[in-house]
Amino acid sequence: MNKSHISTDILNRMKAFESSDSEALNRLPIVPLSLENEQQKTATIGPTTGIMMSSPPSGVQTDAEGLILPKKLINPCLESTDRKQLHRELKFTTKMGINVLNQKS
């Protein structure tokens, strides 16, 4: 778009925003990046598409095509220590013949 067709009011507003943006950028402190952050932010180019792709997060397994492999989820009921202790106690009480329903807790 040609600037001669833009009104002076709009041009003044644009200059105000541009100057405030450049002043804000000049006030930002410059912090050097660590080598680890740079390695994490590097992107790889896909072999067939040439599209920039970011590396998957650590702990995620991918196949040759870059697809995420599914992983088996844990069953919280079977992994819970409270559930295991309750089950062990119930097995013991049934083996001993103790009725747990008539007891006060």
In short:
Helix content is 45%, strand content 6%. The protein is mainly alpha-helical and 105 residues long.
Commentary on this structure:
Strand 1 (43-45) and strand 2 (52-54) form a beta hairpin. The radius of gyration is 32 Å and the shape is elongated. The chain has helices spanning 8-27, 35-41, 76-79, 81-96, and strands spanning 43-45, 52-54. With 105 residues, the chain is mostly helical. The mean pLDDT is 70. The longest helix is centred in the N-terminal third of the chain and has 20 residues, at 8-27. A two-stranded antiparallel ribbon has the order 1-2. It has a domain at 71-104.
Strand order of the largest sheet: 1-2
Mean pLDDT: 70
Main beta sheet strand tally, sense and closure = 2 strands, antiparallel
Overall number of strands: 2
Radius of gyration: 32 Å
Shape: elongated
What structural class is derived from the secondary structure elements? mainly alpha
Could you tell me how far the N terminus lies from the C terminus, measured between alpha carbons in angstroms? 81 Å
Number of DSSP helical runs = 4
Uncertain runs are none
Q: What is the helix/strand order? A: HHEEHH
Percent helix among the residues?
A: 40-55%
Query: How much of the sequence is in beta strands?
Result: 5-15%
Pfam families: DUF1151
Keywords: Coiled coil
